[in-house]
Amino acid sequence: MKNLIGKIFLLSIFLFGFLIAQEDVPRPYKLVHADTLSVQKINDEYVSNLIGNVHFFYGETEFFSDFADVFEKQKIARLRGNVEVYDDTLSLFADHANYYRKEEKLFLNHNVFVKETHQDSTIRTFNADFVKYYRQEKELYAESNVRTFDERENLHGSCGNLVYYQKENYGYLMQDPILQALGEDTLTVSAQKIEYFDDYQKVVATFDVKTVSNDFTIFSNFLLFFVEEEKAIYQGEPIFESEMAIAEAEEFQIFFNEKRIEKAEFTDSCRVDFKISEDQERNSWVNSREMTFNFRDGELEFCDARFEVDSRFFQKKNEEKDYLENLAKGNRLIIEIEEEKIQNVDLMKSISGLYKFEKK
């Protein structure tokens, strides 16, 4: 009997010691909670299987999920179901995630959503099918069905591939990128590549650039947009198109107010083909070295062409209007427009030309 009691006592001590040993397995992470915890030793490595309401810290990074497997020697955490990761200003959510602690790399896939919180409490977000976050370098790579939003500047973007360098406040969008700025008007920019600098204070778009608003469309190969100044510079054979006119030059500088065009300055080899009234064709034109256009509520109201001005004003004869054609050259031409109709034309300095008209 004494021997039996002694054996039971020794067995109890052994089991108690085994359980204590399991709890004291040195873990590279801090477990806060799991409904179920089991630890296996596989190939000289402890693997923690966490099930249900999982919550743990790995260094300064906080993790939540439905399930997690932590490979303690390799320092790898694999999470599944309602994954949430919190790291400094970033909050990351996905269906699945793998965290490589040694390299400090986090890979997320399926329904990925990333939120960055700025010091002024505004946010920037990213949605994608797959996201890689390099914690040490603070670099984020998003792939497939990427969407991004910046609350501070009210900018929305989409693309197939996005890169964001958090330390430098720089990123770029590739694979059919589109950036949309919302305001009184909506500006939409598409290109082969769109880059943003200084938290979207400067945007650069390159190759096959297309800018669309409610009032106009601009095509070019290069766009530099200063967000705070609401100023855009277009180069690389830019073309401006609206209902009333088509214009081209070596360079456009466009100024906006609440995303709506307010002023345009064209430089070198400027040409604009336009209607002299809404019911006419765009068969009048002006050439010059410089042009300035002023707009009110998105509609052109003033044009100032300067240096080596060459112009043609043409009006087709109809029941209400006489035929007229005016070919003229000068050093400066001012056109005043109201309700999409030319009200006044003033040609100054070195004037020469030909004026034709027919009475009804």
Summed up:
The protein is 6% helix and 68% strand. It has one helix at 2-23, and strands at residues 30-33, 36-42, 45-58, 61-71, 76-87, 90-100, 105-117, 123-134, 139-150, 155-165, 170-174, 178-182, 186-190, 193-197, 202-212, 217-226, 231-235, 239-241, 245-248, 251-257, 260-274, 284-296, 299-315, 323-338, 341-348, 352-358.
Q: What does this 3D model show about the protein?
A:
By secondary structure, this protein is mainly beta. Helices cover 6% and strands 68% of the residues. The chain is built from 1 helix and 26 strands. The protein has a 26-stranded antiparallel β-sheet that branches. Strand 15 (202-212) and strand 16 (217-226) form a beta hairpin. The longest helix has 22 residues, at 2-23.
Terminal Cα separation, in Å?
133 Å
The string of secondary-structure elements, in order, is HEEEEEEEEEEEEEEEEEEEEEEEEEE
Biggest sheet record: 26 strands, antiparallel
What is the share of helical residues? under 10%
Counted beta strands: 26
Percentage of residues in DSSP E strands: over 45%
Unreliable stretches: 4-26, 354-360
Provide the residue-averaged pLDDT.
85
Instruction: Supply the number of helical segments.
Output: 1
Rg measurement, Å: 33 Å
What is the 3D shape? rod-shaped
Structural class estimated from helices and strands: mainly beta
Label this structure with key terms.
mainly beta; 360 residues; single chain; 6% helix; 26-stranded antiparallel sheet
